[in-house]
## 1
Amino acid sequence: MTRRKIHAFLIAALTLSSLNCGVGAAQTLTRDEVMRVVSGARVLDPKYQLNVGVAPDMVTITTYQNQAAKDVDRDCKIDAILVAKALYDKFGSSLPVVKLMFFDTRNTSKYKTVSVRPGDIRTFATGGLSQDSLLSMLSVIGGSYGAPQHAAAAADRPMSLSEVKEGILKDKRIALLAQINEQRGENMDVSLAMQRFRACEDLIARYPNPNGTHISEITASLQDLTRIINTIGEQRNARDNAVRDRQIQAIPMSGLELPQRRAVYNGLYAAERANIDVADLRRMYENDVETRIKNGTADPTAVNTVLRLILQELHRRNPESG
């Protein structure tokens, strides 16, 4: 079957399967669970990496357009419906609006978005909407983040709060940029957030006297940016918690050269938290120091030498550690 025929078949089946969705216990809406459901639905082309953002008012999924489709807009709508249907089957009434962003494979600065409300799926499932009516009521909104070279360069350059443009929601934009700068300082990848922030600033420059439609576009852009920043924050917390747990579980408590061993362990922890690669030093520490001390085969002179070498190399790689 062609992709279009598969879509038509799935759309026809939607009225049957959706009638039974959402009847079980409510599922927890998390990024990982959304990713599992969307991947398992096999609607979107698996050769493209999915990105998922989860917020109380919206689930955002990014992928790429099917350029082989005769009608790309219609194809995007059908994909969005089927993805929303799969999520609604899983999460039921707890599911917020589902927004899909389809980037152009030939120009990745351009995209199309389609937003589907759970209510639309319910209404269609109960016969309140025909297939054509559902497709026609969905809007495909095009957008652009500027030239890819510009976006990449902008992501690499920090932006000061004083550079935020005058205009509506300036305080909100300053607060968001401050969060991005803080995350950058904590060694998080903020390239996507900076790309989105500069896109918001481009909208401010484009609409110096915005009307209602322009304000809605700017607000939606800031909401997308907020979701990205929140996702980065979640990633940072997960990273910090993993490193902290590792430190607590393995911190040296007794034995030879205890002060120096603790200094090395704390130095490794600080370097890992700063995203500095010290995997080789950690292996040396664990194999040549801790394992031998635990097994009773450690030579005090050798242990002291290894610890001094590791500390010297840690200070070289992470001068701020003191």
Note: The longest helix spans residues 212-250.
## 2
Amino acid sequence: MDQNEYKEYIEENKYKIKNPASWIGYCPNRIEDDDSRMRCFSQNILFGRYIVRNGETVLAIALYEPDRASFSDKVENDHCSIVMSMNYYNTHDRRAKIVMVANLSKDGVIKYEAIKYFEDQWIGTAEGLDNWDRFFIQVSFLEFVNGEKVEYNYC
């Protein structure tokens, strides 16, 4: 989803809020690129939570986008795996970072890992083995933290 799609989603669903304290998890699309290694990474990462702010229900979101310049890959374990990583930053607060890691074994199995930091402090880690959707459900539990800047969308 891009930012326009988020805004359309919010507009279409603003009257359907059942629990104003609920969080939102989502499974992003993979990066489409001529470099096949990029398919191990998501186009972005989104955290969302309905909250009450100044007496109104709002959707607070933190959108993380990849820093392609941070991409790295290396061969490990005597050429038995390739470990790739890339940083993602909150578009509203660069103090918030997620390091995405994809470890591709020689038999084609991918182990995913997302490590979240805020102000260089470790917040949490999500891991998954070869199941993109299940992995990103776990990533969504990392959500935003106190003090992290987010975008507010009034419902």
Note: The chain has one domain: 3-154.
